[in-house]
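User: Predict structure, ligand S-adenosylmethionine.
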Amino acid sequence: MIYIDPPYGKDSMGEFAKTHYNNAITRDNLLSMLYPRLTLARELLAEDGVLFCSIDDRNQAYVKCLFDEVFGEENFVATISRVTKKGGNKGDYIKPKNDFILMYFKNKEFVSKEYYALEEKCEKIDKWLEEFFLGENRRFIKGEIPYRSKLESRTNQRYYIECPDKSLIIPPGNVFPEIKQDGAKVTPLSNDDKCWTWSVERYLQEKENNRFYFYETDKSPFLNQNGEKSKWGICKKIFQSEILDQQKIFLTTLIDNCENSQATREVDSLYLSFSYPKPVNLIKNLMKVSSQKDSIILDFFAGSGTTGHAVLALNKEDGGNRKFILCQLNEKTDTTPNGIAYDVTAKRLKRIMTGECYDGTKPEKWLEENEPYGGSLEVYDIDSVANFETTAGQTPFEVIDETLYGKEKFSTVKEKIEWVCSNFEKTQKYLEESDLNKGRGD
Ligand SMILES: C[S@@+](CC[C@H](N)C(=O)[O-])C[C@H]1O[C@@H](n2cnc3c(N)ncnc32)[C@H](O)[C@@H]1O
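Assistant: Predicted complex:
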């Protein structure tokens, strides 16, 4: 899973944007900066991976188009809206209080719909499955017993059902079909004559679909063809896929209680300062529906490191072993003289993982309500990119000369990124192997 929260301007007005970051970002900047990153991000995603992108109301339409181009409109899942604040007076004419999260799959065809069910509901279903599991590879649970009291409209619904040992069963009552065979019916005479839920035609059709489960019981309410108590019980099967289909996530409810004020408190409690962080709960909830316990989560606009925080918090909650990769431009601001990456991102993660600051002091306020998450953190300073010198103002993709590799010049950056990604992987493996062979595995 990838979660990003790109640096759109504070006032978010295209070329008039002002930003609270040092490198003022216009909409043109934003879109052209995002394009190669998204193309690369798509390559990095697992085939059934998902990307979420937070964006404000002014920019979402433009950014959505860019996403459609890179991911394909068919892989668009939803624009989820989030309430960012309940109060406040900012805004002319109206006071906006929402932002948005674009959700895209890398490739919808690889994503199981069944997986996209609320975790809590899945747990509930698993519990039912354990309670009622009746065999056949956990594919179904025991549904209701399919019989009803007699109603006028159910004159077609008193008939024999054949059991696995070829005996017949019928709901309690006094009248019986003359012919003793599966599906032979009789018209009920009074309310004492109970009926099956389905018409005889529907029953025969559902029987073909293997919809019934028979079990032996001494509490069977049914009578056999001789009017005696049967040893057979019957219930309708409910297949797991049908249940999950009804439980598709309703994401808007998932991201309730994820307001910005909460995020600011979370960062403040660690004695750090960052403008406009996202709340841990937001990313945690997105992860709940779209990650597995061993997923890798990437955020390449890490800011204060909320995504890493959310990964650690969710791992603790559900015993997962998710890993995260965060990238953060080391922008220097008034409050971060060593750069955001050093002064906020790394510090936050260090504090929540160990309960200690780099200088040995403790984030007491946070520790009052939390326990350190543990885990291991590696922090890298990216000095030069890959094995070649970059030229100022150019991306690594622009610098690589494909003609040196016997390729025609690519006409789009997308093609070039795809080519670099598939070949980089091979080159990297080869270098690692040869280094190890030479005893230089470090
Ligand atoms: C909106 S913030 C992300 C906040 C983060 N989600 C959090 O909860 O703390 C966007 C981040 O993008 C970074 N950024 C700004 N310009 C950038 C650029 N040109 N390339 C990469 N990152 C940039 C900023 O430093 C900032 O940390």
